[in-house]
Structures are given as structure tokens and as C-alpha cells.
Amino acid sequence: MRSALSQGSIDIHAAQCKNCQKWRVIDTHEEFEEIRCKVIEEPFHCSLKANCSCDDPADIEYDSSRTWVVDKPNLPKTPQGFRRSLVLRKDYSKLDSYYFTPTGKKLRTRTEIAAYLKDHPECKGISAADFDFTSPKIMRDTIPENVEQKDSVSANKKAKMAQHDI
User: Exposed (0-12), middle (13-18) or buried (19+): which is 69, by Cβ within 10 Å?
Assistant: First the structure.
């Protein structure tokens, strides 16, 4: 399950067919989440998309014309009324996950979600455990060459390594 980034936000959701390995564009975020939440038990196949088969050309090619990210399989669907938002950091180091409530409030942590749910009893049947802040993996081979990326070794770790060398 992959998504493609354009100018810092996800603009295309895609799933790869288990049989032919072709990428199929998934029309809506909701449909993408439905596929993603059960992809291990029910792998995606071209035939799951209307009027589509493995004989058809791929909807989209995996290439560096856009930045691709990979979601972990079987992440839970976002609870109804809430919206998951992924924000790409300027250095392309990761995507930060946030949730927006039915009232439009931005929640950044599971603790904030628990407090919101406690203050809003109309959200019955939803718990903080229903929200997942796992960030998709950014596919390094699709990051634009002109993006200045953080070094993979942190400054703190470099300092410790330098002290060890003395």
C-alpha cells in the first residue's frame, strides 16, 4: 500500500496487485484505508477494482516523478467523523501524523485524543487505542535530488562517537 506525495501532501493513494504487481490508483482515502486495514488477510488484487484486471496497464508507475511513501499494512481505519492528516517535514525525514476531530480540532498525541474523547461523550464506542500515529515510510529513492536531507546520524550521536575516538 503506497501513497504518492506532491508538494508535501498526499495526492494519490495506490495499492499493488498481489498477482501482477501493477499499481492501481485507489479513488478515495476511505477506500484506501479499507484496503489497508485488512491487506494481510485480504491482499489487494486488480479484480477488486471496478472494471479492472491484471491484463490492463498499470494506473501509475513507481518512479521518482513524485515521492512515494509506504503505510504499514493493517493499520486501523480512522474512526468515523475523524480525519487523519500526514504532514511531510521540509527535510523529507518523515511524515507527522495528526487527527482532526469532527469539530475541526487538531490532535497530536494519543493523550490529547483521550482527553478529547473524555470531554465529548457523543464519541461513544471510540477509544484512544483506535488511533494510530505510525508514520508511513518515505521511499528514499523517490525524494527529489534538490532536497537537503538530514544526515542519518544525529548530532548527539556524532558527538558521542567523536568523544570515543579521543
Answer: buried
